Amino acid sequence: MEIFHILLTQPLLNLLIFIYNILPGQDMGLAIIAVTILVRIILYPSFQKSLKAQKELAALQPKLEEIKEKYKNDKEAQTKATLEFYKANKINPLSSCLPLLVQLPLLIALYSVFRSGLEGQISGELYSFVQTPAVINTRFLGFLELATPSFVLALIAGMSQFVQSKMMAPPRNKDSKDKTANMMTLQLTYVMPIITVIIAQGLPAGLSLYWIVTTLFAIGQQWYIMRRHG
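Structure tokens predicted for Membrane insertase YidC/Oxa/ALB C-terminal domain-containing protein (230 residues):
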């Protein structure tokens, strides 16, 4: 965990405070937005690869359904035929997940950084060239307190999560016999936003703001990639 802190958490915390110091009015909310957008831009290539892999898998789904139906009574043959199909089409079924796993440590580090910044827990963490602010202004735009929970921001976070889930969900095939996959898609689309609201309303509003920004940015990225590549 010490390596994780040195390589990710501490540099991101210093970036947050550096941006906070140079912003007019020293607004922690604006600093959180700036750092979140910067990190999402850095992660764009990874996100693009993940979305491309998801689209390729979705296009091949009808054929995969045929394989499942053909070998429904022989799981071993079904697995073998599926793997051969992936190989023939040069598809790695894990390729849509691996880029997201790469992003995960960075997003976890951001969560820790924003929490530390909102609580003013920065003593001994700043580099010599980053000035320690006299106070941490946690009022976003002068009126929204980010250090305490906000149900409104939690609700917006849940709504943005719902929009992203709808965009990410593969088209439902009513003729598909894979009821488990359809059920999982429904759960991700409708249950995850509710869970997001429940969790976010118990966290500092600054973390809800971070979640809103990163989700909206992801929605924008996905819209752009889908529009560009069809």
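The two ends are 42 Å apart (CA to CA).
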